[in-house]
Structure formats: C-alpha cells, structure tokens
Amino acid sequence: MAIDHLDGRLIVLLAREPRIGVLEASRRLGVARGTVQARMDRLQSNGVIRGFGPDVDPAALGYPVTAFATLEIKQGQGADVRAHLATVAEVLELHTITGHGDMLCRLVARSNADLQRVIDRVVGFDGIVRASTAIVMENPVPLRIIPLVEQASDDTEPG
Amino acid sequence: MAIDHLDGRLIVLLAREPRIGVLEASRRLGVARGTVQARMDRLQSNGVIRGFGPDVDPAALGYPVTAFATLEIKQGQGADVRAHLATVAEVLELHTITGHGDMLCRLVARSNADLQRVIDRVVGFDGIVRASTAIVMENPVPLRIIPLVEQASDDTEPG
DNA sequence: TATTCGCTGGGCAATATGCGCAGCAGAACA
DNA sequence: TGTTCTGCTGCGCATATTGCCCAGCGAATA
Fold it and tell me: Cβ of A105: how many Cβ atoms within 10 Å?
C-alpha cells in the first residue's frame, strides 16, 4: 500500500517522461530492469497507478471555459440526478459533498455564452432544485500529484 | 485545433489501452503506422494531448479523504496565497474563481481528522480571511474526458 | 494544370520487450 | 544458530517494436 522511495522516484520519472521504456527507466534509476518491471506491476495491481491514460486538454478541444457548479438536489432524487449528469459530456466530474449544496461538479464549455447552455442542460432536470456556478478565471495550480507522491514516499523511507 | 474522427478514435484507444504501441494502434485503427505516428505527434504538439503521465490514486497513497475548500482572500494578497498553497502537497489543484477574489482548491488528507491539519495548514496564512470546506462523500463521475473527446470529434466529422 | 498535403506500404538497422534462469543478501522465523 | 522467504541482480535469447528512410497516390488547393 505505502510506497517506498524507489517507487516514488519511479513515479516521478514516469510523470516527467511518460513514454519512457522499462529498460531506460532502469538505467535512470540505477536498478535492474526486472526490478522496475516488478515495481510497475505492483504499483498497478496495488491501484496506486490507475493507468497511463492520455492527458487531454479540454481547452485544446475547444472547451476553454471551466466552471464549478454546486447543486441542490430534491430529496430522494440523487440517483436520477447522477445518472442524468453522467450523460452530459461537459460534466467532467461529479462529487457528492457535505455542507451547503449536495453535489459539486466540474463543467467545461466552448465559451461563457456556451456555459449557459451547459448549465441549462445540467439543471434542466427535475431533481435539481438550484445551482450556483463559479467560473474559473485562473488555474494557478493545475491538477497535480507529484508533490504528494514525494511526500508519501519520504514518509516511508526518510533516507 | 479541432480533432477529426480518427483522432478521436486514437485518443479513446489510448485511454482504454494506455501502454499500447504505435504499431498495435495502427492495426486496431486500420490505418498505416506512419499515420498513427503523425497523428500522435500532431496531437501532442497541438497540446490536445498534454502527456501520458501515470494516473496516481491519492487514496492508494494513503490519502482517501478529498475535500473542496472555498477561500476568501484579503485584497491584494492573491499572489502570496497562491505561492503558499503551491507549497502544500495536499493541495492538488487551485483555481481562482468569479465572486469576490475567491479561490477554490481541492484537498486530500489521510483521514477526516487529518483534514483538519491540512486545513489549518492551508488557512494558517495571513492572506486568507475565511475558508469553507466541503468533504467529498462519493464520486459518482470520476474525472473523465472521453465523452468530450467523442463529442468534439463527432462535431468535426459526423460520418 | 501544377502544387501541396496526408496517407499508404515497404524496407532497414537498432533497440526494447517478455520470459526464464541462478545467485545472493537481508529479514523473518523456528 | 540454521532455514526459509522475499526482493534485487545480471544475464541470455527469440521476437516484436521503434525510428527513420523512401516512392507512389489521391484529394484538395492555388
């Protein structure tokens, strides 16, 4: 479950040079090829590494606007709302949360005007009582995981 | 900029079988190897595909708790706050959003109790006036991009 | 009509992969 | 103290893939 320092270095290396081969990775890390192979297998069957899916930029696809919407759901309609939102391609992720509002979702749109269409599509569903939207202006820290990986691997093996 | 249907199929294929080679991809798509190579190069230099970084699961690293925090920032302290949050490994992403100079960030923690430590760390900074946190309970739609890719490629080439 | 562009299909040397193997050091354990 | 695991090493081999070249060809374009 926990990762050691070699795992951490391997993940960082993979993040930096994603299309690197096992052999080259073993050279960079200074370990045997079989070791890298075994570590990668373990990390993947552990679920630490879910996959190596291509990291697609919505903006480059023509969806440069990102927003977060907090949704208030009618009692007992949760499952229907989830199913509805799953069918909307512009809904990139959906969470159920504590506190004010019941769900939080990340939306993308082709423009600010187009965002209105997306929101209408999202909230145009019976179970949704109210939606409150915040448009993203800047993204000073894009989604990242490497610092956490380094922290986790340092926790395990301080050397 | 826009992607055609072949690009879409290629991205979907890469998403489904990430460690696939160029040759195998060309066989699956029924096109020449050079074509796949050229498309991949183009998608990457376009910025449509940012990379193939390993998709690491924070939960498997020992951080199963996710939360979103909305921050209220003291006027003119934005840059300092951004720099501060960038140093906190548990801050996985940070956005500035519309409203009153506010920010939205995604946090992870080792437990609900540990989340308190993270929040203290986040808000224990001069420029932050107030923080409101929503803990994620379920994640019905994990971060995804494939439906949007399919939509974008269908827009371009309906056939 | 001439040109450009993207795709095809082939060939080539160099490289990487998947796989198996034995040896070895350290840790756990009786 | 001796035994058993476990993980890493370093090696070899057959096969598959890569990176790079080329000429031809059809469609769109000037």
Answer: 23
Question: How distant, in Å, are the alpha carbons of A67, A82, A109, B99, B133 from that of B96?
Answer: 10, 26, 17, 9, 16
Average pLDDT over residues B127-132: 93
Interchain pair A137, B95: CB under 8 A: yes
Cβ within 8 Å of B, A 12-71: 14-15, 18-19, 46-63, 66, 68
**Neighbour-count burial of B29, counting CB atoms closer than 10 A to its CB (0-12 exposed, 13-18 middle, 19+ buried):** middle
Q: List protein-proximal bases of chain C (any atom < 7 A from a CB).
A: 6-10, 15-21
Can you say whether the dihedral through the CA atoms of A127, A131, A135, A139 is positive or negative? negative
Q: Tens digit of pLDDT for each residue in B13-28?
A: 999 998 899 999 999 9
Q: How far apart are CA B159 and CA B154, in angstroms?
A: 8
